Amino acid sequence: MSAIASVASVLDRPTLRSLVVETNDGIIATAGVVEGFAGAGAQGVSLVVAALCAMIAGGIALGGARYAEEAAERDARLQVIAEERAQLQLSPDQEFAELVALYEAKGLSPALARQVAGELTARDPLAAHLDAEHRLPLREVRWAPGIIATAAGIAYALGATIPLLSVLLAPDEWRARVTFAAALVSLSVTSVLLARMGVHVRRALTRTVAVGTVAMLLSFAAGWLLHH
Questions:
Q1: pTM exceeding 0.70
Q2: Cβ atoms of residues 20 and 190 within 8 Å
Q3: Mean pLDDT, to the nearest integer, of 219-223?
Q4: Which of 121, 185, 194, 217 could form a disulfide with 125 if both were Cys (CB 3.0 to 4.6 A apart)?
């Protein structure tokens, strides 16, 4: 399997949806940090440093968490594959009977279940058992945790870039307001992207914008209260 094909197989539709959500996390978390610092009276380079640190630390933390999660799932899948391979070597007849029973349980007649099991076993017994029993592919992309972790970190950083650019480009007295507005616009755009991936656009928009609004307002209020 080529490197491009490996990456494509890992970044399927559910994973891409999660990456958009992680982009939202970058927007909301970094904008919240900016609003909190702004509420506490920070200005100029302090807001830039706060946004930059939030982007770097958040992206690394998210990537690390996703790597640990995906690596644990990968190891569990590899363990299942190893166990199935060992069972097929020890008792192939018993495993074949189990495969037939699985297809019968799915509604096939005994004769047809035996025929299907026989044809799949002749082609690749291990793949047949993994699919019927566990819904697992035989080919495991060993670099999948690294690919997903890197993509998650990049997605978070891309989201965090929106409030960072707002802080860099807006006049000092307008930075909090521009960051707030830019974050809401960006969250609206990502909600539309989620809708194109099978999520209801109105629900996604309402949830995402509401969470972002509350997070930024509470962060600003917390900074203001601590400053005063």
A1: yes
A2: yes
A3: 93
A4: 121
* 5 occurs within a structural domain: no
The residue range of the domain holding 159 is 15-72+151-220
Q: Which residues contact 121 (CB under 8 A, 6 or more apart)?
A: 96, 99, 128
Examine the pLDDT at 195 and tell me if it is beyond 80: no
Q: pLDDT (tens digit, 9 = 90+) per residue, 204-218?
A: 788 888 999 999 999
Tens digits of per-residue pLDDT, 113-170?
999 999 999 999 998 888 888 888 767 667 788 889 999 999 999 999 999 999 999 9
Structure tokens at 136: 């697992």
Q: Identify whether 170 is part of a domain.
A: yes
Q: Is residue 9 part of a domain?
A: no
Q: In degrees to the nearest 10, what's the CA dihedral of 6, 9, 11, 12? A: 180
Q: Could you tell me if residue 156 is left (phi over 0), alpha (psi between -120 and 50 degrees) or otherwise beta?
A: alpha
Q: Answer whether residue 181 is part of any domain.
A: yes
Q: Which residues contact residue 41 at a Cβ distance below 8 angstroms, ignoring those fewer than 6 apart?
A: 223, 227
